[in-house]
Amino acid sequence: MNPQDSRLAPLGDYGGPTQTHALLPDSPALDVGDNAQLMGLTTDQRGAVRIINTTVDIGAFEFQGIALIAAAGDGQNTTVNTSFATNLQVQVVETFENKPLPAEGIEITLTPLGTQANADLGNTTLTTDNSGIATTTATANTVTGNYQVAATATGLTAVNFNLTNDPGSGILTILTGNNQNTTVNTAFADNLQIQVAEINFDLTNIAAPVVVVPGDSTTNTGDFTTNFTSVLQSVLDELPEYGLEESACTTTPAVVINSKVEEITLDEVIETEVQRNQNCQPVGNSSE
Q1: Cβ contact 141:98 at 8 Å
Q2: Which end of the chain is more exposed for a tag (fewer CB within 10 A), N or C?
Q3: What is the pTM of this model?
Q4: CB-based contacts of 254: which residues, under 8 Å, 6+ apart?
């Protein structure tokens, strides 16, 4: 006669004042004890309710049920189109004091709930390991904003990961006008021209995340109508107002261009990253 595996967890802290062997969700000891043998006991070794599902479990541990928790990866943010630093980790716990339970083989389904901002997951169907943990990677898509990823398992309440995709770095590229020389007080042959290659940002005043790529029109998630075909083009259209079409300067360069940008927004790109030289006395075309 072969002995039956009792499906006990290793000796550990599963709540209460002392360590014990927890019953796993598939233990044959669940709900097959004899209530008449309790002799008035109302709690198990840990202090948890002694009878669940009408019949006592065999042993000193009364299984209370399991739940899912977001063990790691909740509440984090990353730049659009980059991986989150911490993997999303779901863990099975026993509901008495939410102590981790090494429940292996439970299938977990992950579902991104965002409609615009979202995450690409390494796997959407996971299975818990012998520690009761299931893990996957997550990468922000190209849209900024807050959203959730839900973790579900059959018969259990879902748990949500709260994630944020942050705006990415804007990229300024010098198109024409670099590395020129000319005689003092004469115009350079080429105008200074830069291009905003890509912007990811939030129109926070109207709560409408927008992604702008060269040639693309804007998209929004708010209740408003976009009155322009491309935010990128609107940025470029504003450049002459800040002196970027001026041809020359009698003393020093008319503009200072920093092509490495840590952060770019429509409000501050001109003032902070493409600057008019205040000491310059322009010659030629000027919009001011």
Answers
A1: no
A2: N
A3: 0.62
A4: 192, 243, 246, 248, 276, 277, 280, 282
